[in-house]
Amino acid sequence: xxxxxxxxxxxxxxxxxxxxxxxxxxxxxxHNHYHEQVSYILSGSFKFTLNxxxxxxxxxxxxxxxxxxxxxxxxLEDNSVVIDxxxxxxxxxxx
Length: 95
Known about the structure:
Layout: E1 4-11, E2 14-21, E3 27-31, E4 36-43, E5 45-50, E6 53-58, E7 62-65, E8 71-75, E9 80-87
Antiparallel strand pairs: 1-2, 2-9, 3-8, 4-7, 4-9, 5-6, 5-8
């Protein structure tokens, strides 16, 4: 299943997105980017892996992902939603 991404707001150097992982086990495969990122769990739960370390995040938890840090995320429940803030904006999301 694919992640459903919505751009909620953007301007200046910031972008806010809502990402819905529709079914348990939906993954954002390991990747990295030069953008800094903060992720906030709005619903459900996730396993984030940063630099090989695993973190279990539940509703209300957040995590900072630095520039060029390899990371991935996997939903641990159906309909899990994460809010992401990026700086600078993710130009690749605008295409």
